[in-house]
Amino acid sequence: MEQTADIRILNEKIEKESAFVDIIRMEMGKVIIGQKHLTDSLLIGLLANGHILLEGVPGLAKTLAIKSLASIIDARFNRIQFTPDLLPADLIGTMVYSQKKEEFIVKKGPIFANFILADEINRSPAKVQSALLEAMQERQVTIGESTFRLGEPFMVMATQNPIEQEGTYPLPEAQVDRFMLKVLIDYPSMEEERLIVRENIAKDFPSANRVLKPEDIIRAREIVREVYMDEKIESYILNIVFASRNPAKYGLSGFTNMISYGASPRASIYLALASKAYAFIKRRGYVIPEDVRTICADVMRHRIGLTYEAEAENINQDKIIAEILNTVEVP
Fold it and tell me: Are the C-beta atoms of 225 and 278 separated by less than 8 Å?
């Protein structure tokens, strides 16, 4: 009885504290037509303190979405165009000699912002990608002998084009694993595209208003962690992740030769965190199995390695995840 009362109180608190989610959605809706999944994914990444990898053809409002989010939150936004000739110093900064002071001073790079858009991240070589790793994982940057903390909130949204593979450097598994979500962006519907065309040829293009401060997001992140998660939901998350590592044990022996490696422990952590964030944006104080199922593909698709056999049989990660979700018992 006491636990039920506690959950009810928590539910009321979260319903009140999550009111700003509707405001963000409304402001984003002024600029981004359709792409509800993209908006929700950005909110989950923001509230769960994770980074997002977006994959989609050019022109699907990926850049516009994060730019709009940064302006809604009155936060600093930097867009970095990744190219083959980019150097780590172009990203994080470097030591510059000051003739006036007669010493080397630190010149900070564009990574020092709240929201970073790493556009076409797979266009740059490994040394540039690895410079981003420290910033993403440790939330700090080392220039020369000095280490600098990055401001909060700090979120990297990277994009990659799935069509063009010429002149690209595939992201190593260790780096891909640092992204909480890998979101696939699809084309809008015909009605949505009609509205997009109208909006873009109109006299004035709408813009999002500043309605939140970075402190509001930091506070919301703390409240997201308070969202109640039952032990049964924890077990459900672990079973989903373990089924990707040992499919035969879960009655999925057909996938044994299809999976070269299963999801890492980060998948379990991020599934739990993203489920809490999803419950929060649904203005609920507790996680239900449907939350886990909704965000599962985005959290896991970049964490499952496929064998040549799977590729030959045209089996992708999404098919494997769908089958795991159909097989693992829902609490």
Answer: no
